[in-house]
Amino acid sequence: MFADRARIIIKSGKGGDGHVSFHREKYIANGGPDGGDGGKGGDLIFEVDPGLNTLYDYRHRRKFAAEDGEEGAKRNCTGKNGQDLILKVPAGTVVKEAQSGKVIADMSGDNLRQIVLKGGRGGKGNQHYATATMQAPKYAQPGKPGLEIEVWLELKVIADVGLVGFPNVGKSTFLSRVTNAQPKIANYHFTTLNPNLGVVDLPEGRGFVIADIPGLIEGASEGIGLGHEFLRHVERTRAILHIVDAASTEGRDPVEDVYAINKELEAYDPKILEKPTLIVANKIDAIYDENNDAVQRLKDEFEPKGIQVMAMSAVSGKGLDKVLYKVADLLDTTDKQPVVFEQEYFPELFIFNEEPYTAQYDEEDDVYVVEGPKIEKMLGYTNIDSEKGFLFFQKFLKEQGILEELEKLGIEDGDTVRMYGLEFDYYQ
Question: Which residues does the record give as GTP binding sites (predicted)?
């Protein structure tokens, strides 16, 4: 069974409590405090396993927790650290916070291992609290709790080219002819239940990976049919290969088919339509109506819009090589790095919401000063020198209500905001 989505609860280990004890030894009646520190809780880690290609293991188990740290012991002995829990996932898995849908980790490209939830810090033993006036402290610090969060795991297939089109237009046949993939092929809708991956080998290292994105029908973006389950795989691709049935063997119009599929892609994510696209009119060997020049109609409709149209027959092989080389040309014009989603959600920032922030106006320097643990942590995570990083930080300020707080203080366009030594001008 192919499983490309799973909802699970993950938790890092709690830090062990600090220990309360006093040194006891023969001839030493009142020894000092010697309670050891608690061990650190285990981290919750995601790691890519090249041998996996599905999330099936997470379909039947809901909760995953790292080990808690052990309590400290007497004689200044530190408790044992909790064991990390490593969750193995296939390359291309995106970890998202369940409620907001924001990305926590994208296990793609060079990101083969990521600590998603850090274990709680161990508490300090009573030895740390001895002072000149309190030489026998009877308390120790409790361990810091672990982090717990519900997440979606989504497998987004990593391929250079996404193969889209209605069922029965010949996508699986095309894939089987040009790659080493062996998709099941039959004459009924939703034949392809899994995203099939295949490698196209071309001379001079111009080969590429192609993925058959199954189940696309009208209404797919709204969850109708199987389409919504597979649309997410198109996000990874660098180019789109749109196959249509030029012979209209099922009575559909190929021009209308292109618009219908594009409508679903746009409804799911408008950025998909910005990818380089090639329309391929398939089944030209099955055109028996001389008055039906579907290929020319497709050219007249889409080439003025900058989308090239080519013709082929996946069954006979006519035109296949030309299509493959054209796809390779399209890929040469795109970024060769795989699409990797940036982190949007930082669990240690959002799970503990009690950390405050302050916003106030400094009359002497004529600046608005914003400070607080959350702000300082987020500045450490974000490269605000880049445009994307600055926009992400600005979004964080808005979501936390900080911009609204500044507006209440009377901030206006052009006023200066200071955050831990960084200054920038405020504009709505």
Answer: 165-172, 190-194, 212-215, 282-285, 313-315
Domain borders along the chain are 1-155, 161-332, 354-425
One of 3.40.50.1000, 3.40.50.300, 3.30.300.350, 2.60.40.1230 is the CATH number of 354-425, namely: 3.30.300.350
Q: Is 193 annotated as a binding residue?
A: yes
278 annotated ligand binder? no
Q: What are the contacts of 95-98 at 24+ separation with CB within 8 A?
A: 95/46, 95/151, 95/152, 95/153, 96/151, 96/152, 96/153, 96/154, 96/345, 97/149, 97/150, 97/151, 97/152, 97/345, 97/347, 97/350, 98/7, 98/149, 98/150, 98/151, 98/152
Kindly indicate the confidence band of residue 226, based on its pLDDT and cuts at 50, 70 and 90: very low
Instruction: Encode pLDDT of 382-392 as tens digits.
Output: 666 666 667 77
What are the residues whose beta carbons fall under 8 Å from the beta carbon of 420, sequence distance 6 or more? Answer: 371, 375, 376, 379
Say how far apart CA 119 and CA 146 lie, in whole Å. 5
Whether residue 180 is annotated as binding a ligand: the answer is no
- The answer to the question of whether 12 is labelled as a binding residue is no
Closest CA to 255 of 295, 289, 220: 295
* Contacts of 117 by beta carbon, 8 Å cutoff, 6+ apart: 10, 11, 12, 43, 44, 66, 146, 147, 148, 149, 347, 348
Residue 350 assigned as binding residue: no
108 is in an annotated binding site: no
125 belongs to an annotated ligand binding site: no
State the Cα–Cα distance between residues 305 and 302, nearest whole angstrom: 5
Amino acid at 212: D
The CATH homologous superfamily of the domain defined by 1-155: GTP1/OBG domain (2.70.210.12)
For residue 192, pLDDT beyond 80: no
Which residues, 6+ apart, have CB-to-CB distance to 39 below 8 Å? 15, 16, 69, 70, 71, 72, 78, 79, 80, 81, 82, 122
171 is in an annotated binding site: yes
pTM: 0.66
68 labelled ligand-binding: no
* 3-state SS assignment for residue 88: strand
| Among 102, 103, 14, 12, residue whose Cα is nearest residue 64 | 12
Q: What is the mean pLDDT of residues 52-60?
A: 85
Domain 161-332 belongs in CATH node 1.10.245.10 = no
